[in-house]
Design brief:
The chain is α/β, with parallel strands linked by helices and 758 residues long. The chain has 26 helices and 24 strands. It binds glutamine and zinc ion. The site of zinc ion has 6 residues, from loops. Keywords: Amino-acid biosynthesis, Metal-binding, Methionine biosynthesis, Methyltransferase, Repeat, Transferase, Zinc.
Length: 758
């Protein structure tokens, strides 16, 4: 199908909200890590960074994008950059902006992200519902916002010198303050938002500097408006943009919102403010259009319409996008076509992939291709350029598997239920176990890499894996743990390992996305109906079981986590896709059980992460998340013990979810939150097993027996000891053997002591 050229069309521009920083070959990661090791100088690092910035602007211009953003680059994280720029750093670490030397500045900057001896770094947490992590600013009445750094100005000037008049991107004041935490020294009841007026003064100064440098437009990101918390803060929103709008020397302002719609109240505030442009996410939920209708359009405020999905990898259906943009033209005088959010969350270039199936590749667009899409849409709308828009529309029938659909349709409600009373095997009181992985030694990683490159035969690689399992089993027997694990030595990653073995999933060679700092991940692509051609883990678990009389726990990644850490198809509801993954896992669970495995753990590390940003959507989410888990786990005999594991402790949000999953044992993080979850479950009369993590594996510190014992005694005071399991709070993959072994010995001894006193 092709569009007919319109006569003299309106002037429609194109832009993107941001661009990946890591470089097409993860150049930034290599440059930073080499600087950390002392192998290169600050100067060399800065040169690599400048080259990457210039390349990004060039790629965007070549793609045809009209308005190019800058200051989307960061050495670690843009929230950290904002804190540093306004001198909002905790007193335990020196402020980078106050150092004279470039080298010292950088050293201090990275210290905030990574800590130094005696001074822990800023905490890290998820950026909204993405898999990007930001550093959480710590604010208190004694942190005073002042503009002390000129990064956005310097990057604007640098781009201008290279021939690009960019639009500097700043994190907005509201999102910054609402994403910060209260520092320990703040008085009870104090909130970071109390710094708003001072912070706005600093923004006003920054806007003046940018205007003086020649910037004509600045972007302020306010994704917080997509959350309930942000929506409730319209008063502060109004105050912020009234102040910034009234600033005398300033570029024009684009307030950009994303990760969901913002509701009519916030939109009205922005429309009535002096802000010149508003960016809306018109992809994530359908409500952006309703919001626009509710405020009768934006009038003379420019609409930056996020119609190209900035955080998933599918090509845009251009004819449908043109239709939607046409509707928007009636609601605003000026329009820009954009991505729904920064392209930070997608890989850079599809052309770097050489082995994707052609019918899949045709359906994909990475950052470079998405930039091309917004540019093309802009041209179609303003110049009436005629294009063939048909190619991306229909789903490829090759992605559909009738057998999977028929099997799912045939399932009755009993496929999601286990009997209420499961009796179960004789249980050890305060049974000790671990979460699954044991330390991944560098030898193991080297062997895996060599095997992938074809330099190590599969036979030899498997021999190495079996030897590792022997060692892990022997170690656990020696330590005296009750339920053993095989240690997961065969897994590169808890999602990718399964994605490589399931139909309907593809993995990429170079599809890297920043997770935090220099850590990048390569999320697999779930493109079609999912099924399991053959067992995925049975060989390894049964091998481990053959080496011991003690029970070995099988280890799988649950449906929600498989979705959360992948790029997922959008042509059907997530609920349906999750059910398919649940069914494939159900087959694996059945095979494990048939092979004699009596404990099976299905990890849902990301259950909390996919939780919708707004309360009103959470129930529906939990319904399907729970259903897919139960589909995976309900096929087993009553005597088989189903475990699950989750990586967080915000108990108020997950307590209902834990009950609904109906696992026999749930292990969670708890060491740092003083067993609050256990207390909450105890109060609710929870009768299944709970394994509160009794020590924090995220630190190399070995906890003492007494410390673990104290945690356990606290847990025993909340729930019956017969329902309590004893385990660390996450997998041991990132630890060394020496510390892991000592910590587990202490844990087993602590359990023994508490047991004797019961
Ligand atoms: N079983 C996994 C492991 O032990 C769980 C990892 C996780 O929860 N992130 O590594
Ligand atoms: Zn975990």
């Amino acid at each position: 199908m092709s569009t007919t050229p319109t006569a003299s069309g309106p002037s429609v521009r194109s832009t993107v909200h941001g661009y990946p920083r890591i470089g097409p070959r993860r150049e930034l990661k290599r440059a930073i890590e080499s600087y950390w090791k002392g192998a290169t100088t600050a100067r060399e690092l800065d040169d690599v960074a400048a080259g990457l910035r210039r390349d990004a602007y060039t790629r965007l211009r070549e793609a045809g994008v009209d308005d190019i953003p800058s200051n989307t680059f960061s050495y670690y994280d843009h929230v950290l950059d904002t804190a540093v720029m306004f001198d909002l750093v905790p007193s335990r670490l020196p402020s980078p902006a106050r150092a004279e030397e470039r080298d010292e500045r950088l050293r201090r900057y990275f210290a905030l992200a990574r800590g130094v001896q005696g001074a822990p770094p800023l905490e890290m947490t998820k950026w909204f519902d993405t898999n990007y992590h930001y550093l959480v600013p710590e604010l208190s009445p004694s942190t005073r916002p002042r503009l002390v750094d000129d990064k956005p100005v310097a990057e604007f000037r640098e781009a201008l010198d290279a021939g690009f008049r960019t639009r500097p991107v700043l994190l907005g004041p509201l999102t910054f303050l609402l994403s910060a935490k209260v520092a320990d020294d703040a008085p009870e009841g104090w909130e970071p938002i109390e710094l708003l007026d001072q912070l706005l003064d600093a923004y006003v100064r920054l806007l003046a500097d940018l205007a003086a440098a020649g910037a004509t437009e600045v972007q302020l990101d306010e994704p917080i408006l997509a959350t309930d918390e942000g929506r409730a803060a319209v008063g502060y929103l109004e105050r912020s943009y009234k102040r910034l709008g009234e600033a005398e020397e300033r570029p024009s302002l684009l307030v950009s919102t994303y990760f969901g719609s913002i509701g009519p109240a916030a939109l009205r505030v922005l429309k009535e403010s002096r802000v010149e442009a508003v960016g809306l996410d018109l992809v994530t939920d359908g409500e952006g259009f309703e919001d626009l209708a509710a405020v009768s359009g934006l009038g003379s405020t420019r609409l930056v319409a996020g119609v190209v999905d900035g955080r998933n990898v599918w090509r845009t259906d251009l004819s449908s996008a043109i239709g939607r943009l046409g509707t928007l033209l009636a609601l605003t005088d000026e329009l820009s076509v954009s991505t729904s959010c920064s392209l930070l969350h997608v890989p850079i270039d599809l052309d770097a992939e050489t082995s994707l199936a052609p019918e899949l590749r045709e359906a994909l667009a990475f950052a470079v291709q998405k930039a091309g899409e917004v540019a093309l849409l802009g041209r179609i709308l303003s110049e009436g350029e005629a294009v063939d828009t048909g190619a991306s529309t229909p789903r490829n029938p090759a992605f559909t598997d009738a057998r999977v659909r028929a099997r799912l349709d045939a399932l009755g409600p009993d496929a999601y239920e286990r009997p209420e009373d499961r009796g179960g095997p004789d249980r050890v009181t305060l049974a000790t176990t671990t979460i699954g992985s044991f330390p991944q030694t560098s030898e193991l990683r080297r062997s895996r890499a060599a095997h992938r490159r074809g330099e190590l035969s599969t036979e030899e690689y498997h021999r190495i894996l079996r030897a590792e399992i022997d060692r892990v089993i022997a170690l656990q027997e020696d330590i005296g743990l009750d339920v053993l694990v095989h240690g997961e030595p065969e897994r590169n990653d808890m999602v990718q390992y399964f994605a490589e073995r399931l139909e309907g999933y593809a993995t990429t060679e170079n599809g890297w996305v920043q997770s935090y700092g220099t850590r990048c991940v390569r999320p697999p692509i779930l493109f079609g109906d999912v099924s399991r051609p053959e067992p995925m883990t049975v060989e390894w678990i049964t091998y481990a079981q053959s080496r011991t009389e003690k029970p070995v726990k099988g280890m799988l990644t649950g449906p929600v986590t498989m979705l959360a850490w992948s790029f997922v198809r959008t042509d059907q509801p997530l609920a349906e896709t999750a059910r398919q993954v649940g069914l494939a896992l159900r087959d694996e669970v059945a095979d494990l059980e048939r092979a004699g495995i009596r404990h099976i753990q299905v990890d849902e590390a990301a259950l909390r992460e996919l939780l919708p940003l707004r309360e009103e959507r959470r129930e529906e989410y939990l319904d399907w998340a729970v259903a897919s888990f139960r589909l995976a786990t309900s096929g087993v005999a009553p005597s088989t013990t189903i475990h699950t594991h989750m990586c967080y402790s915000e108990f108020n949000r997950i307590v209902g979810g834990i009950e609904a999953l109906d696992a026999d044992v749930t292990s969670v993080e708890a060491a740092r939150s003083r067993m609050e979850l256990v207390e909450a479950l105890g109060r609710r009369g929870y009768k299944r097993g709970i394994g509160p993590g009794v020590y924090d594996i995220h630190s190399p510190r070995v906890p003492s027996v007494e410390e673990i014992e104290a945690s356990l005694r606290l847990a025993v005071s909340h729930v019956e000891a017969a329902n309590l399991w004893v385990n660390p709070d996450c997998g041991l993959k990132t630890r060394g053997y020496a510390e892991a072994e000592q910590a587990l010995r202490n844990m087993v001894e602590a359990a023994r002591r508490v047991r004797t006193d019961l």
